[in-house]
User: Fold these one by one.
Assistant:
Number 1:
Amino acid sequence: MADKQFKSLFDIIGPVMIGPSSSHTAGAVRIGNMARHIFKELPDSVNIYLFESFAETYKGHGTNLALLGGLLGMSPDDERIQDAMLLANEKGIDYKFIPLADKVEHPNTARFVMRKGNKKMSVTGVSIGGGNAQITQIDDYDLVIQNGVSTIVTYHKDVPGVIAKVSVLLNEYNINIASMKLWRKQRGKDASMVIEVDQVPDDFDVNLLLRCEHMKHIIYVQGDDHGFD
């Protein structure tokens, strides 16, 4: 049998967490936490749609508490996860858990539809095992954002020069690009970049990228379990 390669000790012993299942609790917390990073603030209301395995066991495994706790900014080992509903109520968040029978690509899938005033955003994530998670869709854009990896997502017009300008600006702040993936809906129309970076210095404001011509919107997801108070 071929030797199995592990990226870290985490892959062998699993995450430090609250709850019975790394996929249904720790991974779910990270989906919620990344959704919060992407939305950039607490929503006034959120519908959390649950698919397949999540839809079947979300109450028994505490997946509902984990997803909501992550949205509130908790990390997987936060003891407040068990009180996530109470804390969400105290913050005035209108939340609903909606299990669906739809078949999706991954069984541990959740979709957050968040609203605050006129702002609305849909974020879909999957728990991929071992307490790890990925964001697979933001609104109508299919993409992949890994938990634990600092990631910059751009929305821009598909024209020549945008990628070069972004790369030059990141280089000015000594930000190393680990990987870059590109999407576009149609030539010359809306496009997106998902840029994984090694680090982002404290003096770098990711919104500086909005100065690049044809740039419309920027999302930054920190590469750790970052809490919000």
Number 2:
Amino acid sequence: EWIVDPIDGTVNFVYGIPAFAVSVAAALDGVPVAGAVVDAAHGHVFGACVGGPATVAPVDLRSEEAVVGERKNISRQEARKDLAQALVATGFSYDAERRQRQARVLGTVLPHVRDIRRLGSAALDLCMVASGQVDGYYEHGLNAWDFAAGALIAARAGATVVTPTLNYTADSGLPIIAGVPGVQEELEKMLVSQGAGGSIEQLS
């Protein structure tokens, strides 16, 4: 099964903000086994497969055929941090009522982390966890095409990643929680303590 998002970060793309990606994953029996995310604006392609390392390589998209440069392995296995020192990414729904719930959760998280970043592309957020540009990431209510490739890349880089199964849709409101050792566990505990460890729709 192919899981494809031709433009992850559509609003950024429309507004000319250089934070959007092409995300492609292959899944077997409902589990991602290979994935690639192309950061088109900055000319990088991230990739991973089950049993292999996460990698990043430069890619030249200016010609008819993309030219991929030398791949380098990326790893966060030794990047243990306390949540208080963690830079954490998140995202928000298109739905106004769900955004209100997400804002309440964010208000709880923000005092306990170094800072928050909101990029607007789940695939890139997860690749940033893999590459070390952020230490953690959480978001409620994504579709499989938003996270399938990026979650595998982050996991193969050594991050801990918890996602819904691929058959759930954004309507479920379930969270994806990713981070380096120490950060993901504490972030998940915090979300659970606030009643946001499951569907965001459970919050009143």
